[in-house]
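Could you please review the protein record set out just below?
***
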Amino acid sequence: YKFGRKMTVDLVLEALDNAVAAQNPAPGLIVHTDLGSQYTSEIFGERLKKYEMIPSFSRKGCPYDNACIESFHATLKKEEVYRTRYDRFETARVALFKYIEGWYNRKRIHGSIDYFTPDAYEKMCRAAA
């Protein structure tokens, strides 16, 4: 992921590059997004090709096509964003990083993955592969 003040092509390219650096996915990974202009841009499509990734898009006006990320955003807002007043962008960026990396991925259990944390579940899946 990547934090920014505006949703730009550069922001999503940096997020994609960060994800590739962190996860080193095999060719053929499907990248599912909404139809935002950042994701449908030529440069984003070229970056996906560079990484040998396959683009996939939600249908217009259908958030259910990308229910996982929509659910994450709802949880992030309910548990962190709507409960906090941030005085500066940098304060918000650090707080969101701490929430995602310190709490959501490493301590918060998820019923949809047998009450594991996302980090523990990913480690278990990688060990089984």
User: Anything to note?
Assistant: The radius of gyration is 16 Å. The helical segments are 9-23, 42-50, 67-79, 89-104, 118-128. The chain has five helices and two strands.
